[in-house]
Amino acid sequence: MEYRCVATTATGFVQQLSCAYLLHGYWFYVSGRIPGHKDPRGVDAKLLTKYAVEISRAARARRKQAGLANVHYLRFERTFILLATHGHHLFFDDEAGNIRDARRVPIKFFGYSVSVQRGGYLRKLSSESLLRRDDKLRVRVQIGREEYLDLKAHFLDVACRRSKEQLGLMLY
């Protein structure tokens, strides 16, 4: 079976990243851009081979039981990300100075900020019950800070010149 690593849309990239990889412990990452003069498919093939990404699900499970890390690769246009789980792997040796942890440093991509954080509070069972902390790790997809500040500035600029209906449509 062929390893599919190319996302066709930015939204698909973020969905695959958050639902398939970060949710399952692929917290360590290196991201980058493929230069314009290089063929993206060639870079894909090189990285897939170098880090042995194209392995079966059963092989990933055996590696996990042996204390070895697993690696995934994902690309959209010329932006790529390599993700790894805990354990020993060539990835940690080769990329040592560039590796980030999604629990500490959010992944920034096309105006999104994707991170892994502890949950906030669980829903109250009744109005009299006490707040309960949710200590599970959750994947959080948010609008990026820069994107947010740009949108905020735009809406502050047009707020006095538009009707509430127009502003509502713009927000929608």
Notes on the structure:
It is a single chain. The strands form 3 sheets. Strands 1-3-4-2-5 form a 5-stranded mixed β-sheet. It has a 3-stranded antiparallel β-sheet with strand order 6-7-10. The chain has a two-stranded antiparallel sheet with strand order 8-9. The protein has 172 residues and is of the alpha+beta class. It has 6 helices and 10 strands, in the order βαβααββαββββββαα. The chain has one domain. The protein is globular, with a radius of gyration of 20 Å. The mean pLDDT is 93. The longest helix has 14 residues, at 145-158.
Number of helical segments? 6
Q: Characterize the biggest β-sheet.
A: 5 strands, mixed
Number of domains: 1
- The helix/strand class is alpha+beta
**Lateral strand order in the biggest sheet:** 1-3-4-2-5
Radius of gyration of CA atoms, rounded to a whole number: 20 Å
Number of strands: 10
Shape: globular
Order of helices and strands: EHEHHEEHEEEEEEHH
Could you name the ranges where pLDDT drops below 50 across 5 or more consecutive residues?
A: none
Distance between the termini: 41 Å
- Helix share of residues? 25-40%
- What proportion strand? 25-35%
Q: What integer is the average pLDDT?
A: 93
A few lines on this structure:
The protein is of the alpha+beta class.
Overview features:
alpha+beta; 5-stranded mixed beta sheet; globular; 3-stranded antiparallel beta sheet; 172 residues; 25% strand
Secondary structure: elements and pairs:
Layout: E1 6-7, H1 10-21, E2 28-33, H2 40-50, H3 57-65, E3 71-76, E4 79-84, H4 90-94, E5 100-101, E6 107-109, E7 112-118, E8 121-122, E9 132-133, E10 137-143, H5 145-158, H6 164-171
Parallel strand pairs: 1-3
Antiparallel strand pairs: 2-4, 2-5, 3-4, 6-7, 7-10, 8-9
